[in-house]
Amino acid sequence: TALASFLRRCVQLLLSPIRVLACLGLWDSFYKKVFPYVMAKVAPICNRKVYEQKQKLFSNLREFAGPSGQLTLLEIGAGTGTNFQFYPPGCRLTCADPNPNFRKFLLKSLSENQHLKLEHLVVASGEDLHQIPDGAVDVVVCTLVLCSVTNIKKVLTEVLRVLRLGGAFYFLEHVAADHSSWTYFWQKVCDPVWKYFGDGCSLSRETQKELEKTNFSELNLRCIHVTPSWIPTSPHIIGYAVK
User: Fold this and answer.
1) What is the CA radius of gyration of the chain?
2) Strands 235-242 and 218-225
């Protein structure tokens, strides 16, 4: 709408100093160092809001263990390791994150979750997981990551490549609201701000459409709203897809 466009331009004007820093290549290097400290504070709060949903989501992880009985799991965008508490004992874990500054927070989380075995810690984006062989993992997990990747289609292509046949992709992502809603209006207005302060995060991605287009044999997806319902990040999708 015209009002949304006007407000977006106002927001972009206020962001001019940061946009200049970004053009000079200074903002990204600065924020990559700061962002893990921000997430170390924010992630536990977010986790408490979806604790029950995550418990239920990850309750069937063991069903996808390989023939050995051990579960080999890759988490894309592992960040500070807030999902580790939900993984079953003995889980063989590979963590991938493009930001190496998360490392100390991730290792701290691992020390608090000694039921897990870390096999690999990879500095890599979800679009390029070449360090991980084809069909190498039983499960891939991605929570609140697809909102900020450069190319969702490439990430999902990599997910399918590294999963073994019959393996599963677990996801929890905030997404675009209904286009006729006020929530979507504010998502579009706030998107420019969110991008810079959310490490590339977009509020209005229609991630479910990308999942539906991906060649999974089975897709279990439902829509939820995280409280408070008026915030732009309230609409979420949660579920898992089978290769």
Assistant:
1) 18
2) antiparallel
- Please give, one letter per residue, the 3-state secondary structure of the chain: CHHHHHHHHHHHHHCHHHHHHHHCCHHHHHHHHHHHHHHHHHHHHHHHHCHHHHHHHHHHHHHHCCCCCCCEEEEECCCCCCCHHHCCCCCEEEEEECCHHHHHHHHHHHHCCCCCEEEEEEECCCCCCCCCCCCCEEEEEEECCCCCCCCHHHHHHHHHHHEEEEEEEEEEEECCCCCCCHHHHHHHHHHHHHHHHCCCCCCCCCHHHHHHHCCCCEEEEEEEECCCCCCCCCEEEEEEEEC
Res 132: pLDDT: 96
Please give the Cα distance from 81 to 50 (Å, whole number). 15
Of 118, 178, 126, nearest to 154 (Cα)?
126
Residue 2 has pLDDT above 90, yes or no: no
Q: Is the pTM of this model over 0.70?
A: yes
pLDDT exceeds 90 at position 83: yes
Residue 173: how many CB atoms within 10 A of its CB? 20
Q: How many residues are recorded in the chain? A: 243
Ranges of beta strands (E only) in 65-182 are 72-76, 92-97, 117-123, 137-143, 163-174
